[in-house]
Amino acid sequence: MLLSEFLILLIGAKWFIDGSEAFDEFDAAKAIRSVRDSEGHGTHCASTAAGVRVNDVSFAGLAAGTAVGGAPYAKIAVYKVCWQGSGCADADVLSAFDEAAKDGVDIISLSVGPNTPQPYDSPTSIIKYHAAVAGILVSESAGNEGPGEGTVTNVVPWAMSVGASTTDRVFIADVELGDGKVIEGLAINSFTEFLEGPVALVSGGAIPSASFSSEDASFCVPGSLDTTAAFGKVVLCKQKLVHSYPNGTLDRDYNALNAVLEAQGYGAIIANENFSDIYFPYNFKLPLYDAPLPESGISFEQAAEIETYITDTPSMPTATVKPPATVFKTSSSQQVGPFSSRGPNRITPDILKPDLVAPGVDILAAYTEAAGVEDAAKYTLLSGTSMACPHASGAAALIKAKHRTWSPAGIKSALMTTAKPFKTGTSLDWGAGEIDITSAVDPGLIYDLGKEDYDIFLCGFNFSESDYNAITGQDLSACPVPPPGHSALNYPSMSVSEDSDLVRTLTYVDDHEPAGSTYTVTVSDPAGASITVDPQTLTFSGLEDKKSFTMSIRITSSQTLPSFGSITWSDGSHNVNSIVMVHSFK
Questions:
Q1: Does residue 459 contact residue 475 with C-beta atoms inside 8 Å?
Q2: CB 416 within 8 A of CB 356
Q3: Could you say which of 117, 134, 268, 455 is the most buried, measured as most Cβ atoms within 10 Å of its Cβ?
Q4: Cβ-count burial of 374 within 10 angstroms (0-12 exposed, 13-18 middle, 19+ buried)?
Q5: What is the per-residue pLDDT across 87-144, written as a single tens digit (0 to 9) for each?
């Protein structure tokens, strides 16, 4: 790409630091006081959202091919708000939002979020509200606190919350045992000094150092391995979620690798209790992926096979850890990353979150080569809802480019009602499903929302007069009495905890058939509930025509909750699908 082309794509960059400087943890020595990316996270996200096409890229030969952003012809304005040590201060985020609104952006891609859900009157929730009212879609990461229930952290209904899904690409690192048996493992690794022949193999639990137990050594806790016994060998380490580690459970794989390195082992086989065929060393910075030694991740079941082999080969068990290779496996797709935050929405369970998912596991994108940055590289593989968010942001930008007058809610509706539900898990994991941009640019119908809808929604939160006015600029006297329930919002998904009669309004947006069309509804009942839709047919007379329907939900059994169903409006060419959740969350 020519420099002139890049300058046209990247139309501006600004940095905001005042809020971060107020924190005691702020590291002034490490702060690059400019728009320069000091960690790679921002570059990775920006190039995923709107990077131009670049051929022949990879990470150490893995995921080789052509890289291109979701909306490669979109213009990018960068707002740097995160700093080493102090993270991303709310004050800086708010300043960046204000500046972005003044600059006239259409989409804000926000791969930033809190560790816990924020109330709707928090500063960041309010600034997102004002962005939506100003016509700006905020696409934000759902959070990386999964897989526990109720861990989704970005939950406001006027923004789009994006979870992380897998792709059909995995990185296989086989382990060949001395008896010829091959164990299929996974790894991401740029290590190049692989030995061709077998290496002595030992279980970590068999070689504890003097001050650690055999259990500690089996988990490869740093310092737990005897250096003499581990020297030059492949060490089998087991990782259980219940085990406590000095740096927290999220860093358990990294700790095990460090333990093997410290003990001067040659390589590591790391067995994970929650292993699946989308396993990866769990973290968002490169060092945890790029193991500085041969490594392979396997399941506990596979570890049992290796332990049996070790027991049956008392003389000299051996293993050959092969370099990782890119393999395409359909079975690895349509899953949710284990880190991706799950629903329900703890602030408002009647608003289903996350809204949808997008690819966010082992994503190859541009990185930073800034001087002094650890593991600087042109391209690297990262995982997180931070990586999923810009996929959805790029898709939203493509829709906005085609439909310039659509509201943020209309764009989100198009992405949600055309998303593809997964066959495993539930909508608490993946919301409406995985984005399908081909369908989303031509959804046929949308569920639209605007300022008045959000203001009425906020009437139901017992805000004081001053707080309500501070958010909406309106008086509480404008609220209906009593205020409608939260599930009454004209949202593309439906969620209720009691028998309900919900009114929804659809807007006709099919510019291929501007004269109008007729849609018929199909219902899939949630377990323990029934859904009735009236009317069952909607006839639209042209573009922007609006039609309403009533969806009556009756709960027949609470023993099956939460349960999930759907309603789908179709004219034969378009399928406008809405997830329906019946729950007992409070």
A1: no
A2: yes
A3: 268
A4: exposed
A5: 899 999 999 999 999 999 999 999 998 889 999 999 999 999 999 999 999 999 999 9
